[in-house]
Write a structure and sequence with these properties.
TIM Barrel, 8-stranded parallel β-barrel, two-stranded antiparallel ribbon, 8 helices, 35% helix, 20% strand
Length: 215
């Protein structure tokens, strides 16, 4: 099955439209983060989410770790998916299910080594999908995505093969390496940000080339 594509760091209604026209199945809308690109105000996230046509998914990227804060943020932004970019306490997943019925939960796992396999296994059954990225949540200023770096795809492949839920691959993807990434990992979906941008703006030609190289 050809992987679905989530275009992240969407910064305007125009970028959202361009991504959808190129074939994006999902859009990533980045709220306040300790570091990284693509952050926009919640008011703009809500405006973009309201104008995205179904069945395209809208992902709210959040660094919040408390269920009340995450639920309140989703209600302000009105996305249909919440992407948890940091680790959260185990009880938060059940609390979010109660507070946000019908909203999908996606947990980011930052692949730093073999230990990430166990981390993914521990959270997979609590969420609707996993997203494997290349951040460093252990740093003093956390990196929770948008690094432009790849990680060890061998670990990602193991996670994909064992996961009971769909898995997205993120981290340093671009038109030049996406075919290799798909062959190595076989993910359900791909997540791309910096690899299809020029000067911080979504580059429609790069995005078209990205799609053309997916096999």
């Amino acid at each position: 099955m050809r992987p679905r594509v989530k275009v992240c760091c969407i910064g305007s209604v125009e970028e959202a439209r361009a991504a959808v026209e190129c074939g994006a199945s999902a859009l990533g809308l980045v709220s306040a983060m300790p570091s990284g690109p693509g952050v926009i105000e919640e008011e703009l996230i809500a405006e973009i989410a309201a104008r995205v046509p179904p069945p395209v998914a809208t992902f709210l990227l959040t660094c919040a770790r408390d269920a009340d804060a995450i639920a309140a943020q989703q209600r302000r932004c009105r996305t249909n998916t919440v992407q948890l970019c940091d680790r959260v306490p185990a009880e938060v997943y059940g609390e979010l299910r109660e507070r946000l019925p019908g909203v999908s939960l996606v947990q980011v796992v930052h692949v730093t080594g073999e230990e990430s396999f166990e981390e993914a296994a521990g959270v997979a059954r609590r969420v609707d999908a996993l997203l494997l990225d290349s951040g460093r949540p252990d740093l003093a200023v956390k990196e929770l995505g948008g690094t432009g770096r790849t990680h060890d795809w061998r670990v990602s492949r193991r996670i994909v093969e064992s996961s009971p839920v769909p898995v997205f691959l993120a981290g340093g993807l671009r038109p030049e390496n996406v075919a290799e990434a798909v062959a190595a990992v076989r993910p359900f979906g791909l997540d791309v940000c910096s690899g299809v941008r020029t000067g911080g703006r979504l580059d429609a030609e790069k995005l078209k080339r990205f799609f053309a190289h997916i096999v």
